[in-house]
Amino acid sequence: MKFVKASLYLSVALALTACSEQVSVESHLKNAKIYLNENKVNESIIELKNAISGDSQNAEARFLLGQVYLNLGDGAAAVKELEHAKQFNYAANKVLPLLARAYILTDSDIDVLELSGEASKLANEEHSRYLAYQTLAALRSEQPEQAKESATLAQSLGQENLYSMLASAYLALSENNYDEVSSLISRILVIDAKQVDALMLQGQVSMVTKDYQQAANSFKEYLALQPRSGIVQILLADSLLKSGQDKEAEKHADAILAKVANQPFAHYIKAMVAFNAKNFTKASEHAETALSANFNQFNLKLVAGASAFYIKNWQQSHRHLSSVVKYLPKDHQARRMLAVTQLELGLVDEISATIGDFEGSQAGEAQFLSALSYKLLALGATDEAKKLLEQTESVTAKSASDNARQGILKLMMNDPSGIEDLQEAIALDPEFIEAELALAYAALQSNDIDQAREIAVKWQEKYPDKAGGYSLLASIAIKEQKYEAAEAALKQSLVLEPDNLFALMEQLRLARQQNNETLSKKRADYLVKLAPSNNKVLRSYFGVYQNEMALATLQTAYQADKADINKAVLVAEAMISLSQYKEAEGLLASLAESPNLPKRYWQLMIYNLKKLNDGRNIQSVLEKWLKASPYHLDPVILLADLHASTGNNERALTVVKRGLEYHQDNVMLQLVNMQLLLNSKKIIDAKALYETLATVNINEALKAGFLGRILLLEEKFTPAIPKLTLLYQTYPSSQNAGYLAGAYLGNKEEAEAIKVLEGYLLIDPNENRIKTMLAGLYLQDDTSKAITVYDDVVSKQPKNVIAHNNLAWLYLKQNKIDKALLHAKEAFSLAPEIPNIADTYGQVLLQAGDNKEALKYASKAFDLTQGKDSDIALNYVEVLIANSHFDEAKVTIKKIVTNTTEQSDKKTQLLSRL
Q1: 413 DSSP β-pair partners
Q2: Which residues pair with 410 in a beta bridge?
Q3: Going by C-beta distance under 8 Å and a sequence separation of 6 or more, which residues neighbour residue 689?
Q4: CB 605 within 8 A of CB 588
Q5: What is the DSSP letter of 515?
Q6: Residue 409: helix, strand or coil by DSSP?
Q7: Whole-Å CA distances, 842 to 168, 790, 824, 866, 872
Q8: CA–CA separation, 428 vs 175, rounded Å?
Q9: Using CA atoms, how far apart are residues 325 and 319, in angstroms rounded to an integer?
Q10: 714-736: average pLDDT
Q11: Burial of 838 (0-12, 13-18, 19+ CB in 10 A)
C-alpha cells in the first residue's frame, strides 16, 4: 500500500494545474473586491472568473463580474453573468435593475419587459430604476401605452428620483418633445454628472436637434465611462462627421476597424471622409466594403456610385446609381453621372429613361446635354441625340460657372434604421425644390418645425397635384399633437394619391397615439389588406392586436414570401411574445442555413432556448453564430465561457483564438488566451504569446507571473522562483501561492514551500486547497500535524478525496481502525476508479479482519493498474495469501519487479509466507 501521490509529486501537480483544481472562492472574491476598490478592472475580472471556476453557482461572484462588465459597457457579457446571479438567487433589489440595463444594451427588449413582475416587488428606488429601462424597452417594442404606464408609475415612486426623470425623458423623446428631454437630462446630470444613460440620451437628442458638437461631447463622456461600448463609438464617429470634424471621425472609425475589420458603419464613415477630401479611390473602397455587409443606405450608394464615376469604374458606378436614380430629383447631378456611365458602357437605350424628363434650365446643364448628345451622335444613336437636343432649346441663361455646379453637395437624409441621422446625401444642386422635400423631413426630426413647414408650403405651390406636401404637413401636425389638422392633411394626401402607404401608416399612428383601439384595429385591418407583405405594416398590425389571429396573418405573409428572412424573424418574435416557444424553435431552426442571418435572429435563438431550458443546444447555436458572424464579440465571449465553465480548456482555447483573429489587439482576449494555454500546458504557444504580452501595457508582476509559470512548466525551477515570488507578493492569492510552492518543491526546497503555504494560511485560514498541499508535505515527517490539517479539510470539504484517503492511511498506522474505515470508505465512494483509493480501502479492510472484502478492493486496484504498480501488486499478493489463494499469489509475485528497498523487503517477507 502507498499514499495517493500527495508529497512532492502531488504538490507540483497541484501547482501546475491550480486553475482546474478546487480554489477558495472566498479568497478570489476578497481579492476581486480589493482590486475593484483600487480600480484594477482586469485583475478583478480574472479573480472573479477564478472564483466562478471554483464555484460556478456562486451568486455574488456572478453579480460582481456582471456589474464590472456592465460598467465597461459590455452588455453581452453582463447579461450572461447577471442572469446567472439571478438564477442563483442573488438579491433581487441589486441584480434586477442591472440586468434590465444589460438587456437594454443588447437590444433584448422582450427580456426587459419580462422582468416586470419580479421588479414590482422591489423597493421604490430600485423599482423606479427598473421602470426607466422598462419605459425604453416598451417604446422600442412599439408599446407606447405600456411605456406611459411605466413612466407614470416611476414618477409616482419619486418625482425627483433620477431614474423617474430618466423614464420621463425617454417618453418625452418618443413624443418629440426635445425641450422637455433636454431639461430632464440637465437635471439628471446635476445629480450625477456621470450618469451614462443620461449622457447617451443627451447625445441622441443633440443629434436630432443638429447640435452635433454637443452630441460628440456627450458620446465622448459616455465612451470614457463605458469603454467597451461598441455602439457609442459608432455614434461618436457619426456626430464628429456631422460636425465637420472629419479627421477625428476617421480616427474613431479606424479604432473600430482595428477591432472589427468588416464593421460597415465604420467603413461608411471612412467613405464619407474620403469623399469629402475628394479621395475617390479610397471612398469607393470603403463604400464597397460597407455595402457588401448589407449596409444599404441611400446616401452610401450615392457616394459609391459617384466615387466609382470619378475613378471611371463604369460598371460599379452604373450598379449603384441605377439602384437609386428613381428616388432622385429629375435634375439631380447623379442622373447625369448615370447617363455618362450608360454611355461609356454602351447602354444607349437606358439613357433616355435616365434623363428623359431633365429640364435644362441653366447654361451648365445645357452644356452637359449638348456634350452628351454629341457623343450619342458619334455612336450613331441619332434618335436619342435629337431628344436631348430638343431639351436644350429652352435654355435661356448660360454661365461659365455651370461647370463648377457639377461638383457635389451633401443631401441630408434620415437613417432608415432609426439609430441616427446619416450624413447628408450627396447632391449636386441644393437649389432644387425636390431635394428640399427630403431636407424637410430631416428638419422635422430635428424639431425645426418652421423650416419643415416652409418647405411643405413651397412643395405644395410647385406641385399642387402631388401628395408629398400634404403628407409632410400631416407629419408636422402629428409632432405638434394637432391631431385634427393631421387627419385633414392626410385625407387630402389620400385624395391626391389614393392608398399611398405613407399616409395610411400615419393615420394608424394617429389612432394609436390617441388610444383609439377601435379605429386602430380598423386602420390596421385596412393596411394589412392593402399591403399584406409589407413588414412595417405587419409589425404594426401585430402591435395592435397581439393575439393568435394577428400571428396567423404574419404567418400567411411569411408563407407567401419565405425568402424574406425579416418576415420569419418577425413571426418568431410574435410567437415568443405569445409564449409559443416550441413553435418559434421550429421556425428559427428552419432558417438556420439561410445566408446573412440578422443579429436579431441569433438573439431570438438563444433567448428561446433559455425559455425552453435547452442549455444543451445553446452551445451549438453559439458556434453557428460565431461562424456566420466571426467579427462579433458576443458569441466569442459566451462560447469560450461556456466551455471553460465545464472544464474544457481546449475548446475554450479554440474559441478565443478564433476571436483573436478578428480582435488581435484585444488585451482581455490575449490574457484569457494565456491562462488557457498555461492551464493546457501548451508551453511553446504560451512562450510565443508571452513575447507579445511583454510589450503590452499591463502590470509587470502579471508579466513576471506568466513567465514564471512557463518556467515552472519547463521544470526550470530556479529562475521560476523570483518571477513567481513577485507575482505572489503583488497578488497574494492561493493560486499564486501554489505556483510558488510548486517551484520550491521542484527545486528541492521543501522547507521554503512549507513556509509559503503556512504564510498564505495566515492570510486566509480557510483555504482548503492550500491545507491539502501542506498536509501532503507534513506526511513525511509530522503525521500529527498532517492528521490535524486533513481533519480540518474534510470538515470543510467533505468531498476531498485526497484528504479522506490519506487520513485513512494515517489512522491505520495509529491502529485506529474504525476511523480508518470511515475515511477509506468515503474516499472510495467519491473516486472508485482511482487505484490508490481502492488499494487503501483494501488494506484497511485487511487490518480490520474482513479478508473477503479486502480481496474485492485489492483486486480492483490491481486490475486498474494492470499489475504495473509494484506497491499495489505486493498489497494484492498479501490479501491473496490472507484469503488462502496461494497459487494465484505465487504466480502474481513472480511477475513483480521491485524498485526500492522497502518493496524488496516486503516481497521477501511474502515469499516466506508462501
Answers
A1: 422
A2: 426
A3: 670, 673, 674, 677
A4: yes
A5: T
A6: strand
A7: 74, 21, 9, 17, 10
A8: 34
A9: 11
A10: 89
A11: buried
397 DSSP 8-state letter = B
Cα(169)–Cα(175) distance, integer angstroms: 10
The cell for 882 is 490472507
Q: How many residues does the chain have?
A: 914
Between CA 273 and CA 267 the distance in angstroms is 10
Is residue 422 helix, strand or coil?
A: strand
| Predicted local confidence at residue 427, as pLDDT | 35
Q: What is the pLDDT of residues 745-755, one digit of tens each?
A: 888 888 888 78
d(CA 451, CA 443): 6
CA-closest candidate to residue 272, choices 303, 312, 317, 306: 303
What phi and psi values does residue 264 have, to the nearest 5 degrees? -65, -40
CA distances from residue 369 to 327, 379, 401 in whole angstroms, order as listed: 21, 15, 16
Reference 572, options 601, 543, 597; nearest CA is 601
Q: How far apart are CA 189 and CA 296, in angstroms?
A: 37
The answer for residues whose C-beta is within 8 angstroms of residue 655's C-beta and 6 or more apart is 626, 636, 639, 640, 643
The cell numbers describing 455, all together, are 418647405
CA 787 – CA 824 distance, rounded (Å):
14
**Strands (DSSP E) found in 382-533:** 409-413, 422-427
CA distance 637 to 632: 9
How far, in Å, CA of 628 to CA of 721, rounded? 45
Nearest CA to 184 among 196, 205, 166? 166
| Distant-in-sequence, close-in-space partners of 590: CB < 8 Å, separation ≥ 6 | 568
Higher-scoring residue by pLDDT: 665, 603: 603
C-alpha cell belonging to residue 211: 447640435
Tell me the three cell numbers of residue 630. Answer: 466571426
Instruction: Please tell me the predicted confidence (pLDDT) of residue 368.
Output: 54
Closest CA to 712 of 702, 724, 703: 724
70 backbone dihedrals φ, ψ, rounded to 5°: -65, -40
Identify the burial level of 327 via C-beta atoms within 10 angstroms of its C-beta, where 0-12 means exposed, 13-18 middle and 19 or more buried.
middle
Q: Count Cβ atoms below 10 Å from residue 627 Cβ, excluding itself.
A: 10
What was the pLDDT predicted at 365? 57
> Measured on CA atoms in the order 42, 47, 51, 53, is the torsion positive or negative?
positive
Lowest mean per-residue pLDDT among 77-86, 367-376, 744-753: 367-376
Residue position matching grid coordinates 459617384: 306
Compute φ and ψ for 409, nearest 5 degrees: -125, 170
pLDDT at 522: 94
Cα 575 to Cα 15: distance, rounded to the nearest angstrom? 52
C-alpha cell at 649: 480548456
> What's the one-letter identity of residue 518?
T
CB 86 within 8 A of CB 95: yes
Give the three-class secondary structure for 591.
coil
| Contact of 229 with 223, CB cutoff 8 Å | yes
Sequence-distant (6+) residues with CB within 8 A of 682 are 653
Distances (CA, A) of 912 to 242, 392, 890, 907: 97, 125, 11, 9
696 vs 711: CA distance, rounded Å: 20
Q: In terms of Cα–Cα distance, which of 39, 72, 34, 71 is closest to 51?
A: 34
pLDDT tens for each residue of 340-358 = 777 666 565 566 666 655 5
CA distance linking residue 144 with residue 508, whole number of Å = 13
Cell 473477503: give the residue. 852
Q: Are 367 and 400 in contact (CB under 8 A)?
A: no
The pLDDT tens digits for 671-709 are 888 888 888 888 999 899 889 888 888 888 888 888 989
Q: How many CB atoms lie within 10 A of CB 548?
A: 11
What mean pLDDT do residues 821-836 have? 88
Q: How far is CA 869 from the centre of its chain?
A: 51
H and E: helices and strands count for the chain: 53, 2
Neighbours of 53 (CB within 10 A): 22
CB atoms within 10 A of CB 158: 15
